[in-house]
Structure formats: structure tokens, C-alpha cells
């Protein structure tokens, strides 16, 4: 698993700019083992990007548990209407949407960027440009 963990350089390049421009709070969640999460955080320098990381191995809550959707809201002190959930698994996206959480199925940087732009989250005031 450690060797299979690969960064998405386009997302890692683009998201910090989007975060800075819009003053976003970014919380990352996952069901992986503690050691794998810690490895990814260090290897991909996620502490430079995210405000918090929630792993089921840290908080003992699995993704399909309702509390896994509530915990990021509590940590960020955000309202449901203020967040966008981004995940690469449609089953988890469906569950988030059933809970009233606006969600994006991440397939690649470009499509995620376009979807976020449709919510008004563009990197700049103009058109779509950049690495993805």
C-alpha cells in the first residue's frame, strides 16, 4: 500500500492556490491504517495543504457511520451549506449527498476543478487555466 500511494501533482499544485484565494478550510478523511495516513501526510506534505486530517484509525469512526460526516463539520465549525465533499468513490458520495452535503466525485484534477468552479470556487477571477 505504501508503494502504491502516488500523489496527484496537479491537485497538489492547484489546491493550495484555490485555498488561499477563497480562504478555504480543507479537511482530509480516510479509512486507511494510521501508518499509511501518516506516511501520506509526510510524503505528500499534506500538512502544508490541509487544516485537519481525520482517519478512522485515529477517531475510530468508519466512513459509512453518520458521525464521519459530522466530525469534519464540528472541527471546521462550518455549516452543511458551506462545505463541499470531494471523494473518488461514488458510494461514499451518494451517502454524503443523502445527508444534504454537496459532493463531487473526483475522477481527475480537471473535472474536479470544473465542478468547484461551478460553485464559484475559481482560482482566479477569469477563465480556467493552470496545470489541470
From TrEMBL:
It comes from the Bacteria. InterPro entries: HAD-like_sf, HAD_sf. This is Uncharacterized protein. The lineage of its organism: Bacteria, Pseudomonadati, Planctomycetota, Planctomycetia, Pirellulales.
Amino acid at each position: 500500500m505504501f508503494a502504491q500511494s502516488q500523489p496527484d501533482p496537479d491537485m497538489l499544485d492547484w489546491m493550495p492556490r484555490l485555498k488561499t484565494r477563497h480562504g478555504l478550510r480543507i479537511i482530509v478523511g480516510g479509512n486507511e491504517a494510521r501508518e499509511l495516513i501518516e506516511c501520506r501526510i509526510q510524503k505528500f506534505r499534506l500538512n502544508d495543504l490541509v487544516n485537519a486530517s481525520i482517519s478512522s484509525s485515529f477517531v475510530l469512526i468508519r466512513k459509512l457511520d453518520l458521525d464521519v460526516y459530522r466530525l469534519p463539520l464540528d472541527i471546521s465549525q462550518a455549516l452543511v451549506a458551506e462545505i463541499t465533499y470531494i471523494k473518488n468513490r461514488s458510494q461514499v458520495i451518494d451517502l454524503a449527498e443523502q445527508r444534504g452535503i454537496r459532493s463531487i466525485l473526483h475522477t481527475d484534477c480537471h473535472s474536479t476543478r470544473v465542478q468547484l468552479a461551478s460553485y464559484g470556487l475559481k482560482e482566479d477571477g477569469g477563465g480556467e487555466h493552470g496545470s489541470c
